[in-house]
Amino acid sequence: MKRALASVCAAALALSMVACGSTTSSSTSESSSAAAGDSSSTSAAAATVSGTVTASGSSALQPLAQKAAEEFNTANPDCSVTVNGGGSGTGLQQVADGTVDIGNSDVDAESKLDADVAATLVDHRVCVVTMAAVVNKDVGITDLTKDQLKDIFTAKITNWSEVGGPDEEIILVTRPSSSGTRALFQEYALDGEEEASNAALETDDSGTLLQNVSQNAGAIGYVALPYIMNNDDVQPVAIDGVEPSLENTYNGSYPVWGYEHMYTNGEGSEAAQAFINYVMSDEFAPEIEALGYGVTSKMTVER
Q1: pLDDT score at 198
Q2: What H or E segment, with its residue span, contains residue 46?
Q3: Is 49 inside any structural domain?
Q4: Residues 6+ apart with CB under 8 A from 132
Q5: Which of 13, 182, 227, 281 lies at a 20 to 30 A Cα distance from 257?
Q6: Which contiguous run of DSSP H or E holds residue 123?
Q7: Which residue ranges in the chain fall short of pLDDT 70?
Q8: What's the CA gap between 157 and 149, in Å, rounded?
């Protein structure tokens, strides 16, 4: 009788320990494998998580990160995830410095940090993002060739009449050098050419950028696709007749896209690992496309 009672107590104690435990991290090799594959390849852990997680960086990734944080916080009331913007460069520097747990970035860490610093960070590719040029609706432009787009952002073309629009000055709404959105757009839309500066209308807040474009006649800027999915205040611009869309990104016909990254310093805290695992889980996967981002496994081209 005593032996049977002891067995029952031991089983109850083991079950209690499992129920109260925190989600644990995957190994470095597992993180690398998930980063290289489908953003929905992992499953969210059932155990609740406690602690705090702070993330900063990419404004392009911010809507997804905030949505994931809201759902994660609801499922884990003893854990608080806070997401801020600031630009990819800021997020990468802060996670390297240890002032945040996660650095969100549109670009590889090596493009913003010294190689030895970047080597201390662990990369988690969570999805794909499409970038789109947007213009003030009064311009009446819906399509530009890639060469025209490059000439506009490098200030070789300064009036819309030069590309079939009205006789109106082109106003560039630019982003700071720390912006990962700028780096991605520069690489794949401008073929590496440096965009002209326009400090008067420079911002890395995508909401402010859209407002500047919509309120200034002749304005043009660029944002991540999620910001314009339900926005009628600006006109997205096709490139060589190909519209910025998930379908055209998946099939490789639209050229301006990149991977979105969540970086940790080393493996990061257990809470940070659990949050990233949730972002890359089957449970959260439907939200990725609903928000306007791409699922990595659906890409027919790679970078």
Answers
A1: 66
A2: none
A3: yes
A4: 222, 223, 224, 225, 228, 236, 237, 244, 256
A5: 281
A6: strand 121-136
A7: 1-47, 198-200
A8: 9
Per-residue confidence (pLDDT) for residue 149, from 0 to 100: 98
* Residues sharing a CB contact under 8 Å with residue 279, sequence separation 6 or more, in sequence order: 39, 64, 65, 68, 126, 262
- Helices of type H across 22-105: 28-36, 62-75, 88-97
- Look up the domain containing 96 and give its range: 25-128+259-298
How many whole angstroms separate alpha carbon 90 and alpha carbon 260? 15
Residues 122 and 174 occupy one common structural domain: no
Residue with tokens 């002032």: 99
* Averaged pLDDT of the chain: 87
- Paired tokens of 147: 């060469």
CB atoms within 10 A of CB 290: 12
**DSSP state, 35?**
H
Tens of pLDDT, residues 125-163: 999 999 999 999 999 999 999 999 999 999 999 999 999
Residues 6+ apart with CB under 8 A from 271: 22, 23, 49, 50, 51, 52, 53, 79, 81, 101
Closest CA to 102 of 294, 269, 285: 269
**How far apart (Å, rounded) are the C-alpha atoms in residues 51 and 32?**
25
Query: 175 and 217: one domain?
Result: yes
> Based on the structure, what is the number of domains in the chain?
2
**158: domain CATH number?**
3.40.190.10
For residues 234 and 19, what is the distance between their CA atoms, to the nearest angstrom?
50
Q: Rounded distance, CA 60 to CA 131, Å?
A: 9
196's CB contacts (< 8 A; 6+ apart) are 153, 154, 155, 172, 174
Residues 70 and 121 in one domain: yes
Please name the helix (run of DSSP H) or strand (run of DSSP E) that holds residue 265, with its range, or none: strand 257-265
Longest dimension (CA), the chain: 95
**Its pTM surpasses 0.70:** yes
